[in-house]
From TrEMBL:
GO MF, any single term: oxidoreductase activity
Matching InterPro entries: Amino_oxidase, CrtISO-like, FAD/NAD-bd_sf
Pfam families on file: Amino_oxidase
Biological processes per GO annotation: carotenoid metabolic process
Protein name: Amine oxidase domain-containing protein
Alphabetized SUPFAM superfamilies for the sequence: FAD/NAD(P)-binding domain (SSF51905)
Sequence ranges assigned to domain Amine oxidase in this UniProt record: 10-483
Species whose genome carries this gene: Exiguobacterium chiriqhucha RW-2
Amino acid sequence: MRIGIIGGGVAGLTTGALASRIGHDVTVYESSREWGGCAGKFERGDYRFPAGATLGMGFEPGGLHERVLSYLGETIDVRPLTEVMQIHLDGQTVHYLQDRDLFLAELESIFPELAPRIRAFLNEVWTDFETIRPLFETLPALPFRTIRDASVAIRAFRPAQLRSFRKLYRPLGTTLKRHRLNGTAFERVIDGILLDSLQTGAREASHLLAAVALSIYHEGAYYVDGGLYTLAHALERSIRRDDGKTILGRQIVKIERIADGWLLTDRRGRLDLVDVVVSAIPLEATAQLVTGQAARQFHRQYGRQLERSQWGTFSLYVTLPEAACTGRPLFQQVYSDDLPSGHAFISMSDADDTRRTERPERTLTVSTHIDLSEWQAWKDKETYEKLETEWTERLVKAVRRAFPSWTGTSSVFLPGGPGAWVKYTKRPHGAVGGYAQTPQQALFHAASYRTNLPNFYVCGDTVFPGAGTIGAMTSGLHVARALGSKL
């Protein structure tokens, strides 16, 4: 079966690797010159920067990334973290520790007046995660579109899960209020953690998905040598090893349904005929490619998702001298009232990570969520440059708080606004991370990987289960299963 996969991010490469392994004729088309999409990389002189954060999850034994890589016979270099990150908030530093009990003790020492309530709250969400863990391990696809989709969930069902399922449509804000933690500094800590993983704050996030997000770091958190792009490269290697084709710099601009299958047209007018299409780009981008009656069907199915708003990301890529970085954590969150999301996330290369640089310096990727409506006129060069300058100054302040001895000198000083995401990853309007995982938009209200079109699938961060490399890989796995993979 000829399978054309549009998009060389983690989702598309996962589908391609698993489908190639079972003998399908796979071709992956990536419009840019790098694999990985939002988890890709770029280079400036002697420095290599991950496009996004490099904090890895799912590499523990039994974790999704470990399971897929092991099945494919691939490995990448990761290092477990005992301290996931440091969170700087209101003059205090919270050490986010991988060990659950130690992290709870840390929170109780930072917020002694809230200690009993924090313990009760975390015990509730951690217990809910343990209850639904069988579902997390079997990875059923929501919403159910076929008997097979439902059967995967049924096999993982346990009667004890009914109590947790009663919270299916509960926002985490309700849980915080029940524990009298709403409006507290602890809520702000939770808010930043969830915004990075669920694209929404603590009050609006789905309780059950928040339970997963607040437990996942305790399953295992990792520093990935080089960056998460190495995961994408491992998947791409596997495709080629199994005789699949992977093509960089090939932008598909039209998807047309014809009698013999699907006709793909690239921007140079070259045509490829495939039996199956897997669109591993955002739903908004997919909607721009499909033509004719197929386009109308696609819009009818995903119309609600296509109307949803998304966050954008503003990033700053800098280098710091080793002296300013010694003794500082590899990952930090800095809370600030002058950022719309309330915080910035900083990931730093390890001292001996020569894949990032061989110089006595560290490379930093600093990012924060932005409201894309503020950037609506970003095609106006003067407006864009003004916003870019303002946001750069805000992130420089965050870096100074995280690295107090930094003098401000840097060998590389490169801002990246939504225009960069449009240019290099073809994200419509620069939106990154998919939709907010609220009860009204997540789980059974999420976008299915199965379209109503014959032999046409979608995956990536705008499809269930959402953002992050684990979410993207999961959606790619769902498509691969539909194509015959037994993983």
